[in-house]
Amino acid sequence: MRSVPRWSLISSGCAPVLLIGGWTVAAALEGPAYDPVSQTISVLAAYGAAGFWVMTTALFALGVCHLLTAWGLRPAATAGRVALACGGVSALAVALVPAPSSGGSLRHGSVAAVGFALLAAWPVLAARRGSRAPWGLRPVPAATASALMALGAAWYLVATQGHGTAGVAERFVTCLQALWPFVVVASCLRRSGERETPSGPARG
Question: What's the confidence (pLDDT) of residue 203?
């Protein structure tokens, strides 16, 4: 099984940091008028928002991180790498097609929905069978991650119908989707290190 370049740990590790840091700073710039429990991240990246450039830059950087990680994640199945890369492209598109200052946007909503679906599907698509597979690429952890992301997306859809927790639901699923590539890369590097560790001298 091919090894993962160590720079993938940086690209995957920066993804959740940039995402969470972006919405934290953007929300601070927006002030008390912004409610992170009920309002979505898209509000922070909307035209005219005080933190528009901060959140837009964070989303763009998130997309670049996913693209780089997909490129470096060589042990993963090709379908999963493609889905992760396409999820990165979707994040770039979300940054380039922000929501309007008021009302909805079919283009923005469609791009965001595609991104949610791709990033929820990539763990299970990237899975490898066999005892030599890194933990993050084994079927059970991968399927569990995809299931949690799908449940988070379903929670978000329900919350957007007026239940008041859309912001929390969106942050839950986007955090999980941003963090999982790092977990997979770390498990791949750990597995590679275990294989490279020389065994001690035989005792007679």
Answer: 43
